[in-house]
Amino acid sequence: MRIDVFDFGVGNLHSLSKALSRHSADVRIVRDADTLDDADAIVLPGVGAFGAAADALSPQRERIRAALEAGVPCLGICLGMQLLFDRSEEGRGIGLGVVPGSVRRLHASRRPQMGWNAVETAPDPLFNGVDALIAYYANSFVAEPLRDRDVIAWSEYDGDRFPAAIRHGSTWGVQFHPEKSGKPGLRIVDNFLEQVR
User: Fold this and answer.
1) Cα angle 145-40-95, degrees, rounded to a multiple of 5
2) In this predicted model, what pLDDT tens digit does every residue of 63-75 receive, in sequence order?
3) Fewer CB within 10 A of the end CB, N or C, for the chain?
4) Within its chain, how far is the Cα of 81 from the centroid?
């Protein structure tokens, strides 16, 4: 199984790559959508600012979007989840627009949200075998889908309730970092890989 992890030129991808390769997945760090023809899945990682990541993604946008619309499985993590939407209050740039909606600033007196937070999950294969999820967050912005049916999990921070995870077809997004969320987080990564299989 070949997984392409897109490198936006910011952040350390080591822990994410390690989590994805635990079950013999062939993980490639890529910056070019030309590899999508033989990728079994795409992962959009979760470090950096929306504007810079959207700029880095810009030359690949239409090809990645077409792959996701054709059913290639995708997992967007934190910023990667936000890039699945149309735009963000964080800055310039256009997202992939795969999930209708936009990204807004957290309505909280303390930003960023850094640390552990409870996640209220709905039934979805991504959460199989995961009970009472507490996940690790590092974010100041959150996605706001236009359709409630796209939301598969919620969290609350400083009185602001926001989508913790979304699903649109074979595309999933999580606002938290599963690769940094202990055994439950690794189970979520494993569940995604099982869906890819």
Assistant:
1) 30
2) 999 999 999 999 9
3) C
4) 3
